[in-house]
Amino acid sequence: MLSGIDRVIGRLRNELEKQGLADNTVIIYIADNGYYMGDRGFAGKWSHYEQSLRVPLIVYDPRLPKTNRGIVRDEMALNIDIPATILQLAGVKIPTRYQGRSLSPLLQGKHASDWRNDFFCEHLMDIPEIPKWEGVRGKRYVYANYFEQEPVYEFLHDLETDPDQLVNLEADPKYREILAAMSKRCEELKEKMEFLKK
Fold first, then answer.
1. Are the C-beta atoms of 133 and 123 separated by less than 8 Å?
2. What is the pLDDT of residue 198?
3. Measured between alpha carbons, how far is 190 from 134 in angstroms, rounded to an integer?
4. pTM > 0.85: yes or no
5. For the chain, which domains are there?
């Protein structure tokens, strides 16, 4: 699949060169979630683990100076940022109702002090074999609340000390305050999302 995508991108770039558009065409590559491929004994892409939440994102802007190319940024970019980014790159005003933010400042190498530190995530599809959940992915911690379970089942992972998310810290007394803060943040972000849907 990756080889096929590489070939198609190569064909697109060759055609852009032929038409004289290559120097003014931004290419944004973003993929779907991974399917676990048996990792953790899972298939699909429905959970709070990194294999399910994260996707690759590459933005190639030939108009940027070479010093701004090939940079890997640590800021959290979301799929909802892509429409705002495309509009800003095209010189079109971004509607206020958009939830995402343009990635343009990051592409230009600027420091964005007010950039997001976390995001709300959820899986609410009605599939009997897959439990519904909601949570927060922060810079260091991931919180997930599988709210339809009896009893409700929570996860708390420390990505700094456990990047593979093998240890659930939910029952560890040392993490009680962090668990409570992440749970509260989940509710705050959920309320904000529900308000934006109105």
1. yes
2. 60
3. 8
4. yes
5. 117-198 (3.30.1120)
